[in-house]
Every structure is written in structure tokens, then in C-alpha cells.
Amino acid sequence: MKKLETVQLDHGSGGLASQELIKDIFLSHLDNPVLAALEDSAVLETDRGRLAFSTDSYVVDPLFFPGGDIGLLAVHGTINDLAMRGARPFCLSLGMILEEGCPMEVLRLIVDSIRKASCESGVPVVTGDTKVVPKGKGDKVFINTSGIGFVDKGVDISASMARVGDVILLSGSMGDHGITILTQRAGISMQGKLRSDTMALHNLVQKIIGLKSGAVHTLRDPTRGGVATSLNEIAEAAGVAIEIDEAEIPVHKEVDAACEILGMDPLYLANEGKCLALVQAEYAREILQAMRSLPEGAEAAIIGRVTDGPAGRVVLKTIAGGSRIVSSLTGEPLPRIC
Amino acid sequence: MKKLETVQLDHGSGGLASQELIKDIFLSHLDNPVLAALEDSAVLETDRGRLAFSTDSYVVDPLFFPGGDIGLLAVHGTINDLAMRGARPFCLSLGMILEEGCPMEVLRLIVDSIRKASCESGVPVVTGDTKVVPKGKGDKVFINTSGIGFVDKGVDISASMARVGDVILLSGSMGDHGITILTQRAGISMQGKLRSDTMALHNLVQKIIGLKSGAVHTLRDPTRGGVATSLNEIAEAAGVAIEIDEAEIPVHKEVDAACEILGMDPLYLANEGKCLALVQAEYAREILQAMRSLPEGAEAAIIGRVTDGPAGRVVLKTIAGGSRIVSSLTGEPLPRIC
Predict the structure, then answer these.
(1) How far, in Å, CA of B216 to CA of B209, rounded?
(2) Interface residue of A111, A129, A135 to substitute, partner B, most B CBs within 10 Å
(3) 3-class SS of residue A308
(4) In a designed cystine with B178, which of B108, B130, B208, B269 is the match (CB 3.0 to 4.6 A)?
(5) Maximum Cα–Cα distance for chain B, whole Å?
(6) What pLDDT, in 10s, does the model give residues A4-57?
């Protein structure tokens, strides 16, 4: 297959095209075992214990949307990437690329959101940088946050740790963020309360990994590419198969309705305040209860299990009683969702 | 004075307007002592020793220029920000914001430069993220790198540590990077060899801080805003005055010539492979020799001293025998220099 000669929107969608870009361009040049693991954050052995390190750029359009804005996303997203390795987030950096002519009030509102999210989650912004590009060479505000976390002894959480027999939990309903952005962009106003789920998950994670040492094998926040893509990545990394039950996956009815209108599948929509947890079966109920005891996990559910089917295969058992293969996001570009 | 209502190019120049933006918008919201110190990187006390953390976005235009490209800058710049606190750089993150339609070959060349710079400096890229924005909403490639370093016991280097009597060294010639970018943009071709000085300085820093514990008080790499702005920042942070000797400041003759043509003052031009070191006077000669023993410090010079004049004042003793106040960069926007 001839390689595409230019960067396409699809390369940023978080699906298959993103994975190909990463493998072709980044891993082929920058290969090292930590980077190659393609986890939500790097975990680094140092002579001072284990550090988690993560980075994410935020280019969401529109900047403000029901339930949040780019500032909240930038704080929550990087905290969550650290949390998905079981790390206790310690601090954040903040890099802003501003477009000339961006209203100062827009910037002020965003930085105020960053302040709120940082205070509420207890993770301070300790270093920053601001660049300005001429009008037409950016789009108001792009943000990068990077974060450092500490990984306690005995915590070893990664996609490759998933094991046959593990139970799969989702910490809440699916698709809220993605569909909120898409309806905003399409100019569709839905009755009811479509709103982004942007939220920090580090407290939920600390709670569930503290229940029973080693019981949580894998955590991932299904952002770009959605639950479907995250599960495919996990199945591939661990060399296992995954089965999920459509009837068990929580989806708000407003999200379902908007998906119908826009022809979207919530399995592929971005979430910004949810995590998948693959856990030892005997502790699954207890972990579910722990999630549900917190506001951020109130709608948590057991949605499936890891099976010994073909490595990398993800199967959805439909409400109708059938089953179908669920692949990674492909084809449809959903640009600037986060 | 009425505040400007929108972001201006000048807000990204690294001079006074940048400082005002940082104080007005960022510090007023995100205030904490580590961020407020406005150092090149944050140094964080943790139960696992001291960590340095830094972030920088790179939006240089053009992407490729004599002596380097945006990829080299992105690696060297963040390594240098860590080194300026005396930290040993440990690892980097890499966040890319790509514009739809960016030629894949451009991306490949840049990532290859990142690989080279990372290998040569021994600081690996361990985590990354890629976003794509639609054509016209970015400009081919923007890069953020963040970095973690370790600060050894006994190392305490910051702008506020500068003391009256300290000797000021510059690790090499001034203005090479800034004037290279400006002549490229102006389409001016100079005879001789104008080229960016982009270079990692962490080995030079480790060498000079290892000579005599506590002898190096302050380090800063004079990037945006140049030597003039960095010295003003130091003088203000430490509450001291600074005097520099025009005759002693190394400037390549090609840089001088290009500055004449473009009406620029090399004191305000960005450097990407130089550092200012403010050191205890009795060790200044030894530190100068140590710098000169390395290729990256071959042209190092003693350029001035810290005096007990009015806090925050920087004075240039001119070659003609006069003296003039040197203020921070102001007015003239030099966008996208790094």
C-alpha cells in the first residue's frame, strides 16, 4: 500500500491511522521500550523510585462546551493519563500556543478553569510557557499539559497485564464528551442534558487500587477512539480476546438519541472522565462498589470479560442476542475532539 | 493604562509584554511559589529528592534553518531549561500539533532530528502525543517538549541566588540563532556562516557546577529576549545591579554585519546554545577555563559583574567608553524565533 504523502485529519483521531503514524514515524525513529509500550503515561524506574510521566496537547473545537472547556480538559486529561498507570499525580506543566488576536477574556476564562481544576484535584501547575503565532497560523488557544506522578511499590498496571478471566469495568456512561463536541459543532441543540464528562479520576483510581494489592491489572481512559479502540489496544498489548455485553454498557439516553441523529456509534466516541478497569474476577464486585461509592463512578458497571479467544479480538454481544467484532476506530475522522 | 483586549504577537516575544501577560493572566490565577519564581524550570522538593520539571513549545518559522531545525530546538531547549537549575536531565516528553496537509517527509525529517538530538545528549523521549488540526488552523508542525531532571544534593541554582561581586560569564557568542532566523525570514543571504547555535548545555553545566560546590549561583539560557532580557530578569529576581562590558561580549562578525543590515541589537537576539553563569568571583577563571575546554563553551568569556547599584538595573559599558541602561526587550515583536 502506498503511504499517504501528507498528514491527514484522520492521523489525529486516535484510531488506526493514528497508530500507523505513531509506528511509522515516531517509533521507527525514537524506539525505546518505555515509549514503545504506548501506554497512557511512561513509568520510569529511577534511583529515586518509579515516576510516571505523561504529555497531551489539547486542540478541542469549540473551546467552551456544555460541561467544560479546553482548560478543564487539559488538567483532567493529563491527570487521568497518569492515573491510568496507578500513579499519584504530583504536578503539571502548562504550555500555551496562542493565536494573535485571541480575545484576552477567552484566555482569562480558560486559565481560570485551569486554576479551578488544578485546585480541585490537588495537582498544581508548577511550570509554564507561552508562545504566540500570527493570526491564521493557529486557532485561538492550543494547550499542552505534561504531568509527573509517583508510582507506589507493588503497583504495576498496564495494558499488557490483562489476563484471561479478568472482569472489565467501565466507571460510568459512554460517549458524553464526544457527542457533546460533535453536536456543538453541528449546531444541533438536544433536549435534555448533553454535557462533557470531563473529570479527574485519580481519586477513584487510588481507591480501587488500594482495595487489594494486584487486583487491578489494567486501566485505560477511553478518550479519542472511544471504548472500542481502547479495548482493541488492550487486547493487542496483552495478547488476549475481549467480550463485552452491549446491554451492560451504560449510555445516557440523550447520547443514544444524538448518536442516532448523527449516525455515530457511542463505542467510538471520546470520553474525558471515564476509565476502563480490567480486574481479577474475584474482586470485581468489591471494586465496582468502590467505584460507585464515589460521584465520579456513580454509574460504573461491569461490561465484559477477558477471554482466551484469538489475541487482539474484541467481540460485542448485542442486545438482540447476536455478536459482532468491534474494531479500532478507522476511516471516519473526528478531528479536534480534545 | 487600558489593557490590550487581544493577544498580540509581542506577548510571545519573551520581553516585557510576555512578562506582563504572565503576571496578569497566569500568576494571578495559578499562583504558587514554584511557578511564581519564573525560573527556566521548576525545582520540586519531593519525598524522593529534588526534581526539576520544565516545558516549552516550539513554533519556529521556518522549520528548517542553517544549523538546525525545530526538532533540534525542541530537544536542546528543554534540556537547557533543566540544566539552568543545575539538574541532570533524565527524560523528555514530545507533544506534536500537526497541520492537515503537512508533508510526511517534513515530519519524518523533524522526528529524525529529534532522534539525533536525543541520542547525542543521552536524554530519551519516553512519552508522546500527536494531534492534527485542519488546514489553516495551525502551521505544519508545532512541538512541545517537557522534561524531568534530577537535582543533586547541594546544588541550589536560581536567579535569586545572584550576589554582589559575582562575575558574569557567557558560554559563547551572542545572537547566532536569532539573526539566523531573521535573515532567513527576510530572505537575506549573508556571506560567511550565519547559523543557529542550537546545542545542549547540560554537560557544560555539570562540568562547571562540579568544580566547586556552591560557586555557581545563577544560570540562565538567554533565549527569547536575548542576553539583555535575561540579565534584567536576574537583576530583578536577585535585587542587584549588573554591569556588562560591550568589548568583552563575544559576537561573531557575521552576526554583527547582519544586525547592522536589519537594525537589530544582538543583546536582544535569541540564543539556543548559550548560557549566562553568575559565579563567585574567586572561581570565575577556573570556571571560564572549564567552559572553554568543551566545544560548546570554546568561545566563553567573562562579560561583566554583579554590583550593588539600584536593584534591577543593567548597565552596558560601551566600547566607546560610555555607559547606557539596558532594558528588557520591549516594543519590537520578534515572533516565532523558537
Answers:
(1) 6
(2) A129
(3) coil
(4) B269
(5) 57
(6) 589 999 898 888 889 899 998 999 899 888 888 888 899 999 888 899 999 999
Ordered alpha helix ranges (H), chain B: 16-21, 28-30, 33-36, 70-83, 104-121, 176-186, 202-209, 226-238, 253-262, 284-292
Note the ipTM here. Answer: 0.95
Torsion of the alpha carbons at B71, B73, B77 and B80, rounded to the nearest 10: 100
Confidence (pLDDT) at A113: 97
Domain range list for chain B: 32-151, 159-325
Its CATH architecture, for the domain B159-325, is: Alpha-Beta Complex (3.90)
Taking an 8 Å cut-off on Cβ atoms, the answer to whether A131 and B99 are in contact is: no
A159-325 has the same fold as A32-151 = no
SS3 A249: coil
- pLDDT value, residue B332: 62
Q: Considering the entire predicted model, what is its pTM?
A: 0.95
A131 touches chain B (CB under 8 A): yes
Question: Does any CB of chain B come closer than 8 Å to the CB of residue A27?
Answer: no
- Residue A198 region by backbone torsions, left for phi larger than 0, else alpha for psi between -120 and 50, else beta: beta
Are B11 and A132 within 8 A, CB to CB?
yes
Q: Report DSSP letters for A97-145, one per residue.
A: EEETT-BHHHHHHHHHHHHHHHHHHT--EEEEEEEEE-TTSS-SEEEEE
Q: Does B56 lie at the interface with A, CB-CB under 8 angstroms? A: yes
Q: Which DSSP symbol is given to A2?
A: P
Q: What is the DSSP letter of A47?
A: B
What is the pLDDT confidence band of residue B333, given thresholds at 50, 70 and 90? Answer: low
Helix B104-121 to helix B70-83 angle (10° resolution) is: 30
> Do B30 and A107 count as a contact with CB atoms less than 8 A apart?
no
Out of A27-36, A247-256, B91-100, which region has the weakest mean confidence (pLDDT)?
A27-36
Is A120 an 8 Å CB contact of chain B?
no
Chain A, window 87-106: residues with a beta carbon less than 8 angstroms from a chain B beta carbon: 90-91, 93-105
CB-nearest partner of B7 from A4, A95, A104: A104
**Chain B residues touching residue A144 (CB < 8 angstroms):** 55, 57, 95, 144, 146
Cβ neighbours around A303 below 10 Å, total: 23
CATH classification (class only), B32-151: alpha beta
Task: Inspect the interface and report whether the beta carbons of A34 and B134 lie closer than 8 Å.
Answer: no
Question: H/E element holding A178?
Answer: helix A176-186
Beta carbons of B131 and A25 less than 8 Å apart: no
- Copy the grid coordinates of residue B59: 513554533
Chain B residues touching A102 at Cβ < 8 A: 6-7
Q: Which pLDDT score, from 0 to 100, does residue B312 have?
A: 97
For residue A333 the three cell numbers come to 475522522
Write down the pLDDT at residue B111: 97
CB pairs under 8 A between A and B: 269
Q: Does A1 touch chain B (CB under 8 A)?
A: no
**8-state DSSP, A4:** P
CA distance B135 to B126: 29
